[in-house]
Design brief:
With 474 residues, the protein is of the alpha/beta class. It contains ten helices and 18 strands. Strands 1-2-3-4-7-11-12-13 form an eight-stranded parallel beta barrel, surrounded by six helices. Helix 5 runs parallel beside helix 6 (217-234), helix 6 (217-234) packs parallel to helix 7 (271-283) and helix 9 (351-367) runs parallel beside helix 10. The radius of gyration is 23 Å and the shape is globular.
Length: 474
C-alpha cells in the first residue's frame, strides 16, 4: 500500500556466524550450539524458549473488554530508544493520563525484528523492549500478528538472512506454513500474558490474487481461523479480531469494481473489499472485535468534496460494518485523512490544519459506531516531524507532547467505549463551518475554516481561531 513508509535501510541487521562443520554433524550441532553449519542458516542471538514469560507482565483487568478506546501504533521509530532523560519523559507523559492510551505493536517490522529466524528459534529482543515501554506507560498493549518470518514464505532462514525489503516483508506466509504462523502467534501470547488483544495480520498484505483479480479472502480466513483457535487454547480470555482490510473507495463517477450500496459524495466503496469482508464475516470461526483500516480520500488521493466532508466516508463504512457484525466492537487499526506525497510523507498542511482534520476523522469514526481507533504515528528521529505525537527521544529535549497527542489523549479521555452520542444545536449559519460531536458531558467543536469565526453551539456563543479545536463542558 505504501502507506506505512517502510524504510528498509533503517533496519537492524545481525551478522551470521559460519562454522566449518561437516553437514553430517548438523543434527548434533543444532542441539548444542546456537549456530548451524556453513549453510548460512544462523541462529546467533536466538533461543528455544520463545514462550518463556518476559519481564514483569502488567496485571490485566479481571475482565478485559473487547473495546479499548483511542490510541496509537508504534512504528519503525518510537520512544523506547534514545536518551535516557528523553525516554523517561515520554514514559511519564504517556502514563500521566486519567485514561492511558492503548498501543499497538507488530511482531515483525515497524520496530520489531524477525521473531523466529529459524523454525523453533526465537529472537524477541526488539519486541520485548517495545512491550516494556508500553507497560511502563500503563497503556493497554495490543499486538498485531504481522508479519511472518522468511522461511514461512519461501525465503532463506537465518538470524542474519532476513529480507527487509517492503515487498518481502509484506508477503503472506505460504499456505503450507499457516499452522506454523498460528503456533508463532501462540508463542507470542505465552511470552506476553498481559496482552489480551490480538489483531490477525495487516491489510491483507500478500493476499491479493492476480489470477482472480480480487482478494484471496479464502486464504486469509483460513489463516485467521487457525490463529484464532491457537490463541484461545493459550487463554480463553484472549480477544481476537480481524480482518484489518483497507476500506478503499473510488471516484464517485467510477462504475467498475464500485459498490452501488456504500457510496456518497466522498466516493464509492471498492466492491472487492466489501466482498472480502463479507466472506470473512460469514466464515470466521469467531471474533471478539472487528478491525478495518482506511482513508477518507479515494484510491486516487482525492478528498471529496473537501478534506473535512471526505471524513464522512469513515462514518458510512462504520455503519455498513456494524450492520453486518452486530454487537462486535468496531476498531479502526489505521485511519488517514491527509494524502501522502510521492515519498508517502504527509507534511503539506500546517499543524493546526492537520489536527483539525484529524479531529474530524475521529468524530466521523465515532459517529459510525467505532469504539476504538489507532493513529499511525509517523515518528522519525529528527527535529521536524509533521503529525508526530512527541518530539523524538533521540533529541536532548525530546519526549515532550506535540499537538496530535494532545488531541488523541483528550479524545480517549472524553469519549470512552460505550459513549452515547447526542445531537446538539448549531446555529444555522455555523452548520457549514463547524463539525460537532457530543455526549452527555462533553462537546467537541472543530472550525473547518482557516479564519476566525464566532460560533453558537449547544446554546453557547464563543469565538474560534482558524482550524481551532475546542472542548466544551455541558
Amino acid at each position: 500500500m505504501g502507506r506505512h513508509g517502510w524504510n528498509s535501510g533503517a533496519l537492524r541487521w545481525r551478522l551470521t556466524a559460519l562454522l566449518g562443520v561437516g553437514v553430517a554433524a548438523l543434527a548434533l550441532v543444532l542441539t548444542v550450539i546456537t549456530t548451524l553449519p556453513g549453510d548460512g542458516t544462523g541462529t546467533k542471538g536466538t533461543t528455544r524458549d520463545g514462550d518463556k514469560v518476559h519481564g514483569t507482565p502488567a496485571v490485566p483487568p479481571d475482565e478485559a473488554k473487547p473495546a479499548v478506546g483511542w490510541g496509537f501504533t508504534h512504528t519503525q521509530f518510537s520512544a523506547d530508544e534514545g536518551g535516557t532523560a528523553a525516554t523517561e519523559r515520554a514514559e511519564e507523559m504517556l502514563a500521566d493520563r486519567s485514561r492511558p492510551l492503548p498501543q499497538i505493536q507488530h511482531i515483525m517490522g515497524w520496530g520489531a525484528g524477525n521473531p523466529e529466524p529459524v523454525k523453533g528459534r526465537y529472537d524477541f529482543a526488539e519486541m520485548d523492549r517495545r512491550l516494556d515501554f508500553i507497560r511502563a506507560t500503563d497503556g493497554t498493549p495490543v499486538v498485531t500478528l504481522c508479519c511472518s518470518p522468511d522461511w514461512m514464505k519461501g525465503g532463506e532462514p537465518g538470524s542474519g538472512k532476513t529480507d527487509w525489503s517492503q515487498q518481502a516483508l509484506e508477503t503472506a506466509p505460504d499456505r503450507a506454513h499457516y499452522k506454523d504462523f498460528a503456533k508463532l502467534a501462540a508463542t507470542v501470547a505465552k511470552r506476553y500474558p498481559d496482552v489480551r488483544h490480538f489483531i490477525v495480520w495487516n491489510e491483507f498484505k500478500g493476499f491479493w490474487s492476480n489470477e482472480k483479480a480480487r482478494w484471496d479472502y479464502e486464504g486469509y480466513t483460513e489463516l485467521y481461523n487457525l490463529v484464532y483457535k491457537e490463541l484461545k487454547k493459550v487463554n480463553k480470555d484472549i480477544m481476537v479480531g480481524g480482518p484489518y482490510l483497507v476500506m478503499d473507495s473510488l471516484d464517485p463517477r467510477q462504475t467498475e469494481d464500485a459498490s452501488t450500496e456504500v457510496k456518497g459524495p466522498w466516493g464509492r466503496m471498492d466492491q472487492r473489499v466489501l466482498d472480502a469482508f463479507d466472506y470473512w464475516n460469514k466464515n470466521k470461526t469467531g471474533a471478539d472485535f472487528v478491525v478495518v483500516d482506511g482513508s477518507s480520500y479515494t484510491a486516487d488521493d482525492e478528498m471529496l468534496p473537501d478534506e473535512f466532508k471526505a471524513t464522512d466516508k469513515l462514518t458510512a463504512v462504520g455503519k455498513w460494518v456494524r450492520g453486518r457484525t452486530g454487537d462486535l466492537p468496531l476498531w479502526w487499526a489505521e485511519y488517514y485523512v491527509e494524502p501522502g506525497d510521492s515519498n508517502d510523507d504527509r507534511d503539506g498542511w500546517s499543524e493546526p490544519h492537520r489536527v483539525a482534520v484529524q479531529a474530524g476523522g475521529l468524530m466521523a469514526m465515532a459517529r459510525g459506531g467505532a469504539s476504538s481507533g489507532f493513529y499511525w504515528n509517523p515518528q522519525n528521529k529528527g527535529e521536524r516531524c509533521a503529525g508526530c505525537l512527541w518530539r523524538s527521544t533521540q533529541l536532548s529535549d525530546g519526549g515532550t507532547e506535540l499537538p496530535m497527542l494532545k488531541l488523541l489523549a483528550r479524545f480517549n479521555e472524553e469519549f470512552t467505549p460505550g459513549s452515547t452520542y447526542e445531537k446538539v444545536s448549531v446555529a444555522a449559519d455555523d452548520v457549514p463551518n463547524v463539525r460537532v460531536l457530543a455526549d452527555e458531558k462533553t462537546v467537541l467543536v472543530v472550525n473547518t475554516l482557516d479564519r476566525p469565526i464566532s460560533a453558537k453551539v449547544d446554546g453557547k456563543r464563543f469565538g474560534m481561531k482558524g482550524y481551532e479545536v475546542k472542548w466544551l463542558k455541558r
